[in-house]
Amino acid sequence: MVKKKLVIFPFNGNGIEALDCINPDEYELVGFIDDDQNKRSSTYEILPRSILRTHAEFRVLAVPGSPLSYKHRSEYITSLDITEDRFINAIHPSANIGKHVSIGRNCLVMAGVVITSNACLHSHVCILPNSVIHHDVVVNSYTLIGSNVVIAGGTTIGRNCYLGSGSNIINEIQVGEYSLIGLGSNVTKNVPANSIVAGNPARPVQIIEPKTSNS
Q1: What does the pLDDT read at residue 141?
Q2: Is CATH 2.160.10.10 correct for 90-198?
Q3: Which class in CATH covers the domain with range 4-86?
Q4: Which candidate in 72, 124, 134, 135 is catalytic?
Q5: What are phi and psi of 205, to 5 degrees?
Q6: Contact 146, 167 (CB under 8 A)
Q7: Tens of pLDDT along 137-179?
Q8: What's the pLDDT score for residue 1?
Q9: Do domains 4-86 and 90-198 have the same CATH topology?
Q10: Measured between alpha carbons, how far is 56 from 7 in angstroms, rounded to an integer?
Q11: Across 97-125, average pLDDT
Q12: Confidence check: pLDDT of 208 > 90
């Protein structure tokens, strides 16, 4: 089988960790796309985004975002200006995906993640290692989920959210779009859009002020 050429955007921690989730029999990594041409690597090629225009055959995994920049993930990914069919999913072989789970495009699911029956991941979702997504959970597009997060059944996570590592969300909760759940928080009540909540139980901290880094 001829391997497909793959580029990852940007050159960041998510992108490097994603390499463990790529099937080496299916994809050949060409390099990382990054707008900061001052970034250097002795291991990987750092490429300008213009490579996407000159090589329309390249497939793409786009995983920008951090606690400072997650609200802008949709902007960063859309700015690549490529068709949806060029995006791939990267799912670690140790991830456990249950029956009737729906996964969109450009999703990254790292090692040890468990996603159970009837859960739905929309496109451009990133889940770090050892998180558990229970039955009938809906994770909307452009959301980032840290490591060791547990989302109980029937919960809905809005678009462009960030769930900090070690956080727990009880069943049937609604987390509004563009919200951040702090590290190690226990969420027992609905979270309004554009909120930061943290603690045990999680309580509002402040309204999020957008940042502009794509690291």
Answers
A1: 98
A2: yes
A3: alpha beta
A4: 135
A5: -110, -55
A6: yes
A7: 999 999 999 999 999 999 999 999 999 999 999 999 999 999 9
A8: 72
A9: no
A10: 11
A11: 97
A12: no
Q: Is the CB of residue 161 less than 8 Å from the CB of residue 174?
A: no
Q: Residue 112 has what pLDDT?
A: 98
Q: Which of 27, 25, 31, 40 is nearest to 8 (CA)?
A: 31
134 is catalytic: no
Sequence-distant contacts of 172-181: CB under 8 A, at least 24 apart: 177/140, 178/71, 178/208, 179/208, 180/67, 180/70, 180/208
Are the beta carbons of 140 and 155 closer than 8 angstroms? no
Helix (H) or strand (E) segment spanning residue 7: strand 4-9
| Amino acid 212: pLDDT | 53
pLDDT category at 213 given cuts 50, 70, 90 is low
Q: From CA 210, how far away is CA 215, in angstroms rounded?
A: 14
Give the list of residues 6+ apart from residue 58 with CB closer than 8 angstroms, or none: 5, 6, 7, 30, 51, 52, 86
pLDDT in tens, 99-111: 999 999 999 999 9
- Under 8 Å between Cβ of 72 and 78: no
- What's the Rg (C-alpha) of the chain? 17
Cα–Cα distance, 129 to 17 (Å, whole number): 10
Q: Count CB-CB contacts under 10 A for residue 201.
A: 11
- Give dist(CA 54, CA 110) in Å, integer: 30
Q: Where are the domains of the chain?
A: 4-86, 90-198
